[in-house]
Structure formats: C-alpha cells, structure tokens
Design goal:
The chain is an alpha+beta fold and about 170 residues long. It has helices at about 35-40, 45-50, 65-75, 120-140, 145-160, 165-170; strands spanning about 20-25, 30-35, 80-85, 90-105, 110-120. It has one domain (about 20-170): Beta-Lactamase, CATH 3.30.450.
C-alpha cells in the first residue's frame, strides 16, 4: 500500500550511461525492475515488484499525460515522454521515457516495457511549463473532467506549434 510521501526539492540527476528499465503487466503492476530503477526510486526491489508503477508518480505530473500514454499503448504503439518521478524520500528525478507494449505472437499485449534515460535539461524546462499549464487546467476542470481538459489543452498547444506530440517530444 502506498503511503503519502511529501515531495521535496531535492533533485537527483541520472548519469549519461544510466538506463532505468522496468516491465509491468497489463494493469501496470511492476514485474521486473533493474538496479538503476531501485537506486533512483529509493525503494527495494521487493517493495517495487507487484506494486503499481505509479508508486513513483510525482504530483507535478498531470493525469492527462498518463491518459495519453495508456491510450497510445492501447493502440499497440510505443510512447515517448518526459516524466518527473518521485523517489521514496520525496526527491525527484526527470527521465526521458520510451514505453512499449510487449506483444505475443498473435499481436496481443501481454505487458509493457519501459526504458528511461537521462532527460535533457532544456526539455525538462519546456515540459515543466507545459505540465504546469495542464495541471492548472485539471484543477480548473475538477476531478471528473481533469484528464479530458488536460488533454484538450495539450492538443491545443500542439496545434499552435503545428507539431504532433511525438514530434514535440523528440525535438526537445
């Protein structure tokens, strides 16, 4: 069971050669995690395995981003994203994530792989601003409509920039 963790301003920076790797089942429960994931999350492997991946979700991350991620995975497509994660001690670390469905020979999803590496500082600055706007929109809309309102704002930002989500993320 997840306990309430108070976020801090302590940032941990990934090293250039770090790769955080995890695998989840279809419901998002962690079935594998590498030692770098254990290191940055601050949880033991035993605490992570069988737990929802959102155990490391930072409150600065809008719900709409994760809805977009799950909607993309449901289409059996990979998704890239900049994500701010929270460690067990309340600290945070930014990652550039690639999440991919694990498909069986018949093309059915059996789980998900996620590989994360060090995020570029300019990307985290850009995405922090976008995520703050999305969070503000989620608060304005209220819990019931938060995800839809947040995603609508993201689509509007992308339309104004004349790019797709993937084009924006990969250009940062």
């Amino acid at each position: 069971m997840k306990h309430k963790i108070q976020p801090t301003r302590h940032e941990r920076l990934m090293r250039e050669d770090d790769f955080i790797v995890s695998k989840t089942d279809l419901k998002g429960c962690i079935t594998y995690c590498n030692r770098i994931f254990v290191e940055f999350s601050g949880y033991s492997e035993a605490e992570l395995l069988g737990t929802q991946h959102n155990i490391i979700r930072h409150p600065d991350m809008p719900r709409g981003v994760f809805k977009f991620l799950w909607d993309t995975l449901a289409q059996k497509k990979e998704c890239f994203a900049y994500v701010k994660n929270m460690s067990k001690d309340g600290g945070f670390y930014w990652v550039f994530a690639n999440v991919t469905p694990d498909l069986d020979p018949q093309g059915n999803a059996t789980g998900y792989f996620s590989v994360r590496r060090k995020a570029k500082p300019q990307a985290t600055t850009t995405m922090s601003e976008v995520y703050q706007r999305m969070l503000d929109e989620e608060r304005r809309a209220g819990p019931r409509d938060a995800c839809d309102a947040s995603l609508a704002l993201l689509v509007n930002i992308l339309t104004q920039k004349g790019v797709s989500y993937e084009q924006l993320i990969l250009s940062l």
